[in-house]
Amino acid sequence: MDKLILSELTNGLNTVWMLLAAMLVFFMQPGFALVEAGFTRVKNTANILMKNFIDFMFGSLLYWFIGFGLMFGAGGFIGMPHFFDLSFYDGGGLPTEGFLVFQTVFCATAATIVSGAMAERTKFSMYLVYTIFISVLIYPVSGHWTWGGGWLMNGEAGSFMMETFGTTFHD
Asked: What is the pLDDT of residues 3-20, one digit of tens each?
């Protein structure tokens, strides 16, 4: 009985910590928006703020729809897509939906980081193309390699990482 209560308490605390970390990463989004707005001309402030809002909105939906499956689905180079279906992921003891939120804010923040370099240099429509590319392909594929069980995490004898470095990727 005591082990069950301790296990539930541990799982609850881990979930709270994961969501707190997701909240902190999410606050990078408005931080980047404000930094970018401060470094651009006044006439472009609304454009910058809209880019940051839209990349989070579209990036989140696209990551949930395609990216999460590519990142954590079965496969060596790229995961198997699971469109709007989270049932394939066991969560490792954490709620799958909470882990999706955690990964989503990182994906959206990755897309936002480059928006400062693109500020005042690209059209809004081209920025959306970039956001789609990051949220659907770049972040999920590189995440699959390093955290989703992809080829950089393959510790089997004869695998690329074991043959070349003698160990798998460590973050």
From this structure: 878 888 888 899 999 999
